[in-house]
Fold this sequence. Notes:
alpha/beta; 7-stranded mixed sheet
Amino acid sequence: MRAAVLHEIGQDKLEVLDDVEAVGFGPGKVKLRVRATGLCHSDVSAMSGVLPQPAPFIPGHEGAGEVIDIGDGVTGLSAGDRVLVCWLPACGTCPACRRGQTQLCLAGFMNAGTPNFKRPGGDVFGFAGTGTFTEEVVVDAGCAVPIPDDVPFEIAALIGCGVTTGLGAAINTAQVEAGSSVAVIGCGGVGISTIQGARVQGAAQIVAVDPVASRREAALRFGATEAVAPDGLADAKQRITAGEGFDYVFEVVGKSVTARTAYENTRRGGTLCIVGAGAMDDNFQVNMFELFFDEKRILPSMYGGGDVLRSYERAIALWRAGRIDLESMITHRVQLAEINDALDQMRTGEALRTCIEF
């Protein structure tokens, strides 16, 4: 079958091959036919080595498709079911799951170290234990979440990662209050979803911050009250908050420099929410006096900061009600053979979200 493979960490191009086989099917597993998958910045971060991932590997974790077969012991799924891919399934038994913090379950991460593909040259890993830049994939049963018939595959794919992450940061983690002021730094797919979450929560002012003009324009369509380049943030802070700072600032880039900017633009007693996934050697610094004196809440948000199954249901309900726009987030649609063009479009900011269709 066809799949897009990264041979070595640090390469910026994928090779589309037709000699890849999905492996590992057995008890507790399901085999999926991928119908649509989104291109998320985390895929590029894994390719570059920012996010740890063994190689060679197949990127992709934001996917949806149909169940081909189920292994022994799998319940609640049947061949032909329409599902989205959950790259961070909850085991239900670990301490995090028992506390109700299923987004912190580590069971899914353990899958990243087990190859679920092979080709004549040897084993191939799937990113985050999945790997959806391929026609078929074998995953744990918990990774296959049934979706209603009225949810298109491309919409379900977005809900599988970017939408859930962004909406959840505003709704679950930060719990944005109605009438508040919000700034969102980084307006790719996750940032746009964060903006939509802040709008759903009733924020009065939502300032989108991004260096790419097309992303700023998109942010306005999705609910931002204004959009500025990074050098315009100080002026927006002065005009909107009289220099005090925003009630909530979301960092959706994953870099310490933008996290520091976010901190400095959060009011005293306000909330800084870290949504972007960064590198282990990129350290965010605050001094002990400002940490104590400013009393700013620093809240990391992992995969939307809440139970992902409930978050999926909520995203679908909001989409059905017309409260969030998911269709317009897909600015590009490509075939697998065009994956490297899609990567370039994402790196330059030309694409908001790209859907790879099979």
